[in-house]
Structure formats: structure tokens, C-alpha cells
Write a structure and sequence with these properties.
The complex is a heterodimer of chains A (223) and B (211). Chain A has one domain: Class II aldolase/adducin N-terminal domain (L-fuculose-1-phosphate Aldolase). Chain A has seven helices and seven strands; from the N terminus they run αβββαβααβαββαα. Chain A has helices spanning 12-28, 85-94, 107-114, 124-130, 145-154, 175-201, 210-219, and strands spanning 38-44, 47-50, 66-69, 100-104, 135-136, 160-163, 167-172. In chain A, helix 2 runs parallel beside helix 5 (145-154) and helix 3 (107-114) packs across helix 6. The longest helix of chain B has 24 residues, at 187-210. In chain B, strands 2-1-3-5-4 form a five-stranded antiparallel β-sheet, sandwiched between helices. Helix content of chain B is 46%, strand content 11%. The mean pLDDT of chain B is 89. Chain B has a single domain (3-210), classed as L-fuculose-1-phosphate Aldolase, CATH 3.40.225.10. Classes of the chains: A alpha+beta (223), B alpha+beta (211). Chain A binds chain B through residues 33-36, 53-56, 105, 107-108, 110-117, 139, 141-142, 164-166, 193, 196-197, 200, 209, 211-212, 215-216, 219-222, and chain B through 89-90, 92-93, 96-99, 103-107, 118, 157, 161, 164-165, 168, 171-183, 185, 189, 192-193, 201, 204-205, 208.
Chain lengths: 223, 211
């Protein structure tokens, strides 16, 4: 039975509600704006649901969350699923324990992704939540197979990865866990940048606004 | 749409910008154009009431320079309906630093353009408006030192998004200066993404809003 054709599937509407609710929260927390980023949730071994393409989070309803076949990426309904569906499917296929995936364009993580740096040797609580390392994928255009492949390779052994010049992917065994990963990742990336700023400034404590002052003093045009 | 509704829409949108910190009561500018008429939020334009002035109409002598600039840009760029000057922190820092901000993030290339240029202007400069128009060529934003980021788009939501993505792009540019430098997306890929975004997603948006 094609799971996409037979839409009366156990847990489908619950999964759609979980994704819809997560979309609103993601928007509220400022981790995405407008229609950027996407969220998905695994329904069973053959099906996941994902946010549609081109609709702002505040205009979504649970019914508009699109069921997608995990194997061949066929989908049900009139709305097109996110163009990153292939990336979500690749991760679900590779990591059977994962039930929720959030792709954000969060700010600090985006900055680190633009530097194409890995964050290595993660310690303490961050290590428990994110894993020992957060890798950054090689650059690929959004929505391409190259991006999907590099994302699932980079996230192996971790719960988050940075997509070069694009954003982040956070995964979890449930939606709450995936959210927790997003928030921890943002905090880790903020501290990662702050440490580099402190090192450049030769200070031991990071004060709000320091980056702006230091940047203008040392990097402004004509300096 | 009734003019009273537009007035309310402008006031509501102005509140959204204030609460998001994009503009401040003492800094930043905002206007909307509707069917060739200009609309500014109450209290922003001084004593003269500019409500409903045509974009091709001569404005009163005491009109602030930024209002005249908005009128000029609406006249020259038929694709824009909303203008705002963002005072968000990284945008301000990038504008003051005076560097053209390259596309370090995909959404920046899509919404802002292949770069955000910096335009140095003095309000007394006779070609002040033309310089800004040139700085915004094929782009939806330009950085102006001491003023911030002038953002433009066809709707309020799109203009707000431009300001947010500009802020994120400026932040990435500044943050990566401390991380050994950012990797810019190639010129071709930036243009490609911008074109795809402009045509594919604007068509999708029209289709969805029509359905």
C-alpha cells in the first residue's frame, strides 16, 4: 500500500499538528523568518510530514503540512513540500532513531556556517545535547541533491550540522529534543564567536556591544 | 481600499517596526506607496501633512530630506511600494564601517542582492538621491553610514524580511571577520539564486494568495 495514497494513516494528523505547532514556535523564538527553514516529523518507516514550500509559518494549518514518501519523495495534496524534502528524507533513512528534523536560518549558527568552520571538542552539557563535534558541510545550492548528501554525511555522530552559507540542521528523537538542539546550537555558536572576539580584543570577559566597538575600531574603512 | 484603512495600515506597520527594533522613534524612516500616493506614519514628517501626496507632486519646502528621497525612489523604481531605513545594530555597524557587504548567506543573495553597497552622502549633496538610487541598482537595500540600511520591496512583509536578512548578512560579515573571514557565495550562484527567488517564489506567492 502506498502510504502517500492512503492518507488515513495512524499518527498522521498528530504528526501534522506537531510540525504546525513547531513552526509557530520556531517563528516565535526568532529562529526563522517568513517562509525560510523547514520542519519535518517521521510518521512511520515510509512516511514523514514536512512544511510546505512558500507559506509563512503564521499562515500554516495542520492540514497544510505535507505527507511525503520517505523512499521516492512523492507527496500527497495540492501543496508542494519544502524543496529540502530530499535532505530530510536522506537523514531519516540514515538515522532510524530520528523522528524530528528542524532546518533553521538562526543567526549565530549562520555566521559560523559562513566561515565554513567545524566546532570541535564540544564539552559539558553541549556535548550531551549536540555531540562531540558540529561539522559544516561543503557549500551546495539550496534544494540540491549535493546539499542533501553532504548534510546527512556531516550530521553522522552528531545532532546538528551547519550548512555552509545557509543555516543549520537540528535533529532529535522527538520535536522537543530537536528544539533543544536548535537552542543549544545557537548558544554554542554565540559563545564560539564571542571567544574569538575576546581573543582579538585581548580581554577575558565579553561585554554587550564589544563586537561593534572593536570592529569599528579595527576593521572600519580607512583604518 | 479606503484611505483611512491605509492610514491604519501604515500606523500598524510602524508599530511592528518599532517593536521589532528595526526603526526607533528617534531614528529610522518608513513610508508606503499606494496607487501612486505617499503615506508616512503620523508624527514622522514634521508639521506638513504629506498623506496622500502624489509621488510626482512637488512637496512643501519644509519637507524633510528623507521624505523627498522616498518620493524620488518610488518615482524611479516602479517595483517598490515600501521603504524603510533599518537601525538594527549589525546593519548600523556595517554601514558605519563602510565596507560593501558580500553575499555570505543564501537568503541575503536572494533578498538583498549580490552585495549591499555603501553610499556616502551628505544631505546637501545635489546628487544625493541619484547616488542612493545607483547604490540600490538591482538590489533591495543599500547601506548609508550614520543612517543605517535603506530597504525596499513590493510589500511591507517583504521589506521587513529584507531588513532582517540584511541584518543577518551584516552580522555574518562582522562575526566572520573574527573567525578568519567568511566565504562568499560566487557571483554566478548569487545571481542564480536571486533570479530563482524573484521569479519562482513571487509566482508561488501569487498563486497561493489567489487560491
Amino acid at each position: 500500500m502506498d502510504p502517500v495514497e492512503n492518507i488515513r494513516i495512524t499518527g498522521l494528523s498528530n504528526a501534522q499538528t506537531i510540525v504546525w505547532d513547531a513552526g509557530l514556535r520556531l517563528h516565535r523564538e526568532g529562529l526563522v523568518a517568513r517562509t525560510w527553514g523547514n520542519i519535518s516529523f517521521r510518521v512511520n518507516e515510509n512516511l514523514f510530514v514536512i512544511t510546505p514550500s512558500g507559506i509563512a509559518y503564521e499562515h500554516l494549518t495542520p492540514e497544510r503540512i505535507v505527507p511525503v514518501n520517505l523512499r521516492d519523495l512523492t507527496y500527497h495534496g495540492k501543496l508542494k513540500p519544502s524543496s529540502e524534502k530530499g535532505m530530510h528524507a536522506a537523514i531519516y533513512r540514515d538515522r532510524p532513531e530520528i523522528k524530528a528534523i528542524i532546518h533553521t536560518h538562526q543567526q549565530a549558527a549562520s555566521s559560523v556556517s559562513a566561515a565554513r568552520m567545524d566546532i570541535e571538542n564540544i564539552q559539558g552539557e553541549d556535548r550531551m545535547i549536540l555531540g562531540p563535534v558540529v561539522k559544516t558541510t561543503p557549500y551546495a545550492l539550496p534544494g540540491t541533491k549535493k546539499l542533501a548528501k553532504s548534510a546527512f554525511m556531516a550530521i553522522r555522530g552528531s545532532n546538528a550540522t551547519l550548512l555552509s552559507n545557509h543555516g543549520a540542521i537540528c535533529i532529535g528523537k522527538n520535536m522537543a529534543e530537536a528544539f533543544h538542539v536548535c537552542i543549544s546550537l545557537e548558544s554554542l555558536c554565540e559563545r564560539f564567536v564571542a571567544e574569538k572576539v575576546m581573543a582579538a580584543a585581548g580581554v577575558k570577559e565579553y561585554a554587550p556591544g564589544m563586537i561593534h566597538r572593536f570592529y569599528l575600531e579595527h576593521h572600519a574603512r580607512g583604518r | 481600499m479606503e484611505k483611512r484603512d491605509i492610514r491604519k495600515e501604515v500606523a500598524d506597520n510602524y508599530e511592528v517596526l518599532l517593536s521589532a527594533g528595526v526603526i526607533r522613534k528617534d531614528g529610522g524612516s518608513f513610508s508606503m506607496q499606494f496607487e501612486g500616493e505617499l503615506y508616512f506614519p503620523d508624527g514622522q514628517t514634521g508639521p506638513s501633512d504629506l498623506y496622500g501626496k502624489r509621488i510626482d507632486e512637488k512637496l512643501p519646502e519644509q519637507t524633510p530630506a528623507w521624505c523627498r528621497l522616498h518620493q524620488y525612489l518610488y518615482r524611479q523604481r516602479k517595483d517598490i511600494r515600501v521603504l524603510l531605513t533599518s537601525r538594527l545594530s549589525y546593519t548600523m555597524t556595517a554601514a558605519c564601517a563602510g565596507h560593501e557587504v558580500p553575499p555570505l548567506l543564501d537568503d541575503f543573495a536572494q533578498l538583498v542582492g549580490v552585495t549591499a553597497r555603501v553610499v556616502y552622502v551628505e544631505p546637501t549633496d545635489p546628487v544625493f538621491f541619484r547616488k542612493i538610487l545607483k547604490g540600490m541598482r538591482r538590489r533591495n537595500a543599500v547601506l548609508i553610514p550614520q543612517m543605517g540600511g535603506l530597504c525596499a520591496a513590493a510589500s511591507f512583509e517583504d521589506t521587513l524580511a529584507v531588513s532582517q536578512v540584511l541584518e543577518k548578512g551584516c552580522r555574518a560579515y562582522i562575526d566572520t571577520a573574527f573567525l578568519g573571514g567568511g566565504f562568499r557565495i560566487s557571483w554566478i550562484e548569487s545571481w542564480l539564486m536571486r533570479l530563482v527567488f524573484k521569479f519562482k517564489y513571487s509566482n508561488l506567492k501569487n498563486k497561493l494568495s489567489g487560491s
